[in-house]
Amino acid sequence: MRIRLTSIMVDDQDKALRFYTDVLGFKKKREIPVGEFRWITVTSPEGPDDVELTLEPNANPAGKAFQTAMFAQGIPIAAFEVDDIAGEFKRLSGHGVVFTKQPMPAGPVTLAVFADTCGNLIQIYQVASA
Q1: Contact yes or no for 8/67 (Cβ under 8 A)
Q2: How many C-alpha atoms does 72 have within 13 Å on its Cβ side?
Q3: Is residue 98 within 8 Å of residue 115, measured between CB atoms?
Q4: pLDDT digits (tens, 9 = 90+) for 63-75
Q5: Which CATH architecture fits 5-60+67-127?
């Protein structure tokens, strides 16, 4: 058993695709029409090409309620590992990304949290060097 595909809900697929590719630096892997929406996936240029993140439309009322509640509570919906959190914080801030938590130590990691412009909070973290 392995993880190949996971999803996050987004309030606008076009805006999400722009943010996740142009700002975060992921690359689009799939864009397949599915009714009124699309099955859009992105991958990390720094990771395996077969691990995909789906930008899932939040058209389901239960999904929308979950997304809204998680954001209101300040809980990140996903976490992405980075090698240089200070550098990523500076780079993303330069792109206008709004951070709700600036880089801070949390046990063996340093983490930060930002809004993805699509209804989610995303955590980035860097594992401390041994």
Answers
A1: no
A2: 6
A3: yes
A4: 899 999 999 999 9
A5: Roll (3.10)
- Position 17 confidence tier, pLDDT thresholds 50, 70, 90: very high
**pLDDT in the model for residue 130:** 59
Write out the H or E segment, with its range, that includes residue 18. helix 13-18
What's the rounded Cα separation, in Å, for the pair 31 and 43? 12
DSSP secondary structure string for all residues of 46-100: TS-TT-EEEEEE--SHHHHHHHHHHHHTT--SEEEE-S-HHHHHHHHHHTTPPEE
Q: Does an H or E element contain 94, and which?
A: helix 85-94
* SS3 label, residue 54: strand
Does pLDDT of 47 surpass 90?
Answer: no
